[in-house]
């Protein structure tokens, strides 16, 4: 019998390896926290919802942009979600769609220039403030 969680872990490792292979930098040492994206004061990490870093749809926005600073790529739209990789400043990305987390912060799902999903990036680190298309709720 196959462990259903195993496939998610394999996909996450494969995705992280692909980011490093394509020139996007992976996690470096200690995980960096990004300003204004962590949980609200008094709430722990149990208050956030992190995904599996897979977004099963075609891009809604499709506009291109770039990172305006070294930006962490998260598995969900919260600073407390797992960091998959770091995108260097001026990394070209495709904006997919954005969401507003429970703390009022906006995050954009980004893809690489070939259209492969990367993950959630805090909009303060994206040109034009990220996507202008709201993500659908599934």
Largest sheet: 4 strands, antiparallel
Strand content: 15-25%
The largest beta-sheet arranges its strands as 1-4-5-6
What is the helix content?
10-25%
By secondary-structure content and strand pairing, the structural class works out as: alpha+beta
- What is the averaged pLDDT score? 73
Radius of gyration in whole Å, from Cα? 14 Å
List the helices and strands and how they pair.
Layout: H1 4-21, E1 64-66, E2 71-74, E3 83-87, E4 92-100, E5 106-111, E6 117-122
Antiparallel strand pairs: 1-4, 2-3, 4-5, 5-6
Could you list some keywords that capture this structure?
four-stranded antiparallel β-sheet; alpha+beta; 138 residues; two-stranded antiparallel sheet; 24% strand; 1 helix; 13% helix; disordered N terminus
Structure description:
This protein is α+β, with helices and mostly antiparallel strands and 138 residues long. The protein contains 1 helix and 6 strands; from the N terminus they run H-E-E-E-E-E-E. The strands form 2 sheets. A 4-stranded antiparallel sheet has the order 1-4-5-6, with no helix packed on it. The protein has a two-stranded antiparallel sheet with strand order 2-3. Strand 2 and strand 3 (83-87) form a beta hairpin. The protein is globular and about 30 Å long. The N and C termini lie far apart (29 Å).
Would you summarize the structure shown here?
The chain is an alpha+beta fold and 138 residues long. The chain has one helix at 4-21; strands at 64-66, 71-74, 83-87, 92-100, 106-111, 117-122.
């Amino acid at each position: 019998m196959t462990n259903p969680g195993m496939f998610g872990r394999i996909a996450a490792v494969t995705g992280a390896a692909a980011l490093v292979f394509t020139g996007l930098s992976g996690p470096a040492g200690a995980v960096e926290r990004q300003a204004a994206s962590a949980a609200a004061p008094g709430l722990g990490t149990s208050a956030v919802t992190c995904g599996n870093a897979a977004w099963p749809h075609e891009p809604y926005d499709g506009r291109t942009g770039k990172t305006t600073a070294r930006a962490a790529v998260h598995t969900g739209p919260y600073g407390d979600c797992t960091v998959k990789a770091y995108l260097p400043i001026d990394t070209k990305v495709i904006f997919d769609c954005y969401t507003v987390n429970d703390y009022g912060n906006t995050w954009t799902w980004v893809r690489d220039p070939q259209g492969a999903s990367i993950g959630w990036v805090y909009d303060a680190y994206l040109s034009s403030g990220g996507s202008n298309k709201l993500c659908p709720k599934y």
